[in-house]
Design goal:
388 residues, alpha+beta, Glucose Permease (Domain IIA), Membrane-bound Lytic Murein Transglycosylase D, Chain A, 8-stranded antiparallel β-sheet, 3-stranded antiparallel β-sheet, 8 helices, 16% helix, disordered N terminus
Length: 388
């Protein structure tokens, strides 16, 4: 069975890793994962105290020098937001990776594809008092006459100004990213990332979504803030993340698929003494490689049962940005097992499972494989020594 290159460079690795960290924490959940697992700590990110998101105007728009965003209200669809800000619903929806009728979270951010008018612009107000004063000063002396003092004319309404402080960076979500990997990339608490962008309690995000990166108490580097204002009708490019001073080079991927080891898993003739059981009876399609492939891929026929590798408790059930399900089980000895790219999950969070109990099955189509990880606290380890 030939699998796509995606198996060896599984896009969920960062998301699964972040999720397993969350699963290993005891209740109540510590969203910032401050050193509860192994040596991993996000204390540096948590110390980056963020400011509050600026309040939007009456239409729900927040205007910055280089872009604008709209804030969704309770019950809004993308079409509702588009109507309120005066943009075509299809254009706004496509720009944010949704459909016009998709329901939005209350407080969710919608990036505007082009700039719209701001309150107070072109108000047409004229300072009559100043004009009259200039005219009197320029007039020649005449015989004094009785005059009546007029009340000062009202001051013109000020033109709306962008929010004070540094402009937040915008991040466009790529396939396989999660709120946890993005918060770690920019060193901001994931809870604040959720508050700034109106994310749900599960911090779910979607491919193509724009996220505002919360502004910390320290101004962003000037090199990271765009200084060129886009022309009307032209979208603002997403700035590079602050972790890179220069753009990363294009990754060159060898189109030749790697050699797949011909390892067939046979049913043991006697009871296994291995610490864990294989979650799927099939063929190993990709092997563990620290830093690039944090687990193994086991391929089999679509619908093949996916079983718990050992007894434990279901710590988390979630999905990545592509909507691909992930199951995490906590075992004794601070071990976690991760089962990604599965379908028809039969357990729920908090369930006790036994070794060999079915928890899901393989997806249909040419992606019928399970991505299986074993984690010792924070660190991923090669699953094969636990299975053999």
């Amino acid at each position: 069975m030939i699998l796509s290159h995606r198996i060896s460079r599984f896009p969920l690795i960062g998301g699964v890793a972040a999720l397993t960290f969350l699963a290993a924490c005891e209740q109540p959940l510590d969203y910032d994962l401050r050193g509860n697992i192994g040596a991993f700590s996000t204390a540096d990110a948590a110390r980056n105290i963020t400011t509050a998101r600026p309040k939007p105007d009456s239409r729900g728009i927040i205007s910055y020098p280089n872009y604008q965003v709209a804030v969704a209200r309770r019950g809004d669809t993308a079409a509702d937001v588009a109507t309120r800000v005066g943009l075509p619903a299809g254009e706004l929806a496509r720009y944010n990776g949704v459909l016009p009728d998709d329901r939005l979270n209350e407080g969710e951010i919608m990036a505007l594809p082009r700039r719209v008018a701001e309150p107070g612009q072109d108000s047409g107000a004229v300072d009559i008092e100043a004009l009259a004063g200039s005219a009197i000063d320029a007039a020649p002396d005449t015989t004094p006459v009785q005059t009546t003092t007029l009340a000062p004319a009202p001051k013109p309404k000020p033109v709306a100004k962008p929010p004070a402080g540094p402009e937040p960076l915008r991040h466009k979500v790529k396939r396989g990213e999660t709120a946890y990997t993005i918060s770690r990339l920019y060193q901001v608490p994931v809870k604040k990332l959720g508050e700034w962008n109106g994310l749900g309690t599960d911090f779910a995000i979607r491919e193509g979504q724009y996220l505002l990166i919360p502004v910390t108490g320290v101004a962003a580097p000037l090199s990271a803030i765009p200084t060129v204002v886009s022309a009307p009708g032209v979208g603002t490019p997403t700035p590079p993340p602050p972790s890179a001073a220069t753009a990363l080079p294009d990754e060159k991927i060898d189109p030749t698929p790697p050699e797949v080891p011909d390892v067939t898993i046979a049913k043991p003739s006697k009871p296994s003494t291995a610490q864990m059981a294989f979650p799927v009876q099939g063929k190993i399609a990709s092997t563990y490689k620290k830093g690039s492939n944090e687990g193994i891929a086991i391929a089999a026929a679509p619908g093949t049962p996916v079983k718990a590798a050992d007894a434990g408790t279901v710590a988390a059930i979630t999905k990545d940005a592509d909507g691909v399900p992930i199951v995490v089980i906590r075992h004794k000895g601070n071990l976690l097992t991760v089962y990604a790219n599965v379908d028809k999950i039969t357990v729920k969070k908090g369930d006790k499972v036994t070794r060999g109990q079915q928890i899901a099955q393989l997806r249909s189509g040419d992606k019928a494989y399970v991505h299986f990880e074993v984690r010792d606290g924070f660190d991923s380890v090669d699953p094969l020594p636990y299975l053999e």
